[in-house]
Design goal:
Blueprint: H1 5-9, E1 17-21, H2 28-41, E2 45-48, H3 53-60, E3 66-71, H4 80-93, E4 97-101, H5 104-108, H6 112-125, E5 129-133, H7 141-152, E6 158-160, H8 171-181, E7 186-190, H9 196-205, E8 209-212, H10 215-224
Parallel strand pairs: 1-2, 1-8, 2-3, 3-4, 4-5, 5-6, 6-7, 7-8
Length: 227
């Protein structure tokens, strides 16, 4: 069903957005611009690769946008020890939020104990906000349910749909995750969010954060949208 204008204009979008730049060839100049944009538009955070966190901390220290970085990105197949070190290193460098990629191999094998141990160890070792990336486009509904249940029991703060490398967020997946979590933790929809209609539909489905590299374009669409 098409959205009417009232559904769009009533949403305060910037505080829900992780302004994202995860291109492996990103330059220091691009990170500087990303930080300036995040401050100007009052986005929730910037989401960047770990190697840029220290620079971002210098630029955003004491300012509103948080610094989010990724752990085990994009495959999630690093050993638990490596992920734990990545998380600790990112925290020391100034990251406020950690988006940790789930080990999909363990998930598909039903190794819930191993998944729980890895995620809980990261969560317990840090006072930072933890989001776990599930890569929903590669999972069956039972696998998504197992992942969500493990994460709920591991002390994390968000489920995140996707890295954006293997597919993106869908309304159906967000609704499914919301039906499991029931508001106990947040849901971050990410990957392929290009239109304001998509963004609003994901929020209505239960997303409490959006990860996108098209943040400013979405705001322009919001300003210019004509119902």
């Amino acid at each position: 069903m098409p959205l009417d204008r009232s559904q769009i204009v009533d949403v305060d979008l910037p505080p829900l957005i992780d302004h994202t730049l995860l291109d492996p060839s990103a330059t220091p100049e691009q990170i500087t611009r990303l930080c300036a944009e995040a401050e100007r538009y009052k986005f929730a955070s910037i989401c960047i690769a770990p190697c840029h966190v220290r620079q971002a901390k210098e630029l955003l220290n004491g300012k509103q946008p948080k610094i989010c970085t990724v752990i085990g990105f994009p495959m999630g197949a690093n050993t638990s020890a490596v992920k734990l070190y990545e998380a600790q290193d990112a925290t020391e460098n100034g990251a406020d939020e950690l988006d940790v990629v789930l080990n999909q191999s363990w998930l598909k094998q039903g190794k819930s104990n191993e998944l729980h141990r890895e995620i809980a160890e990261i969560a317990e070792s840090s006072d930072r906000l933890i989001k776990v990336i599930l890569e929903t486009s590669r999972l069956t509904p039972p696998e998504m349910q197992l992942a969500a249940e493990v994460c709920l029991d591991s002390g994390v703060h968000f489920l995140k749909t996707s890295t954006g490398w293997f597919g993106g967020a869908t309304v159906e997946d967000v609704k499914f995750l919301h039906s499991i979590t029931k508001g106990q933790i947040g849901i971050k929809a990410s990957g392929g969010i290009k239109t304001i209609e998509q963004a609003i539909a994901l929020i209505q489905a239960g997303a409490t954060r959006l990860g996108t590299s098209r943040s400013i374009d979405l705001l322009h669409q919001l300003e210019n949208w004509e119902g």
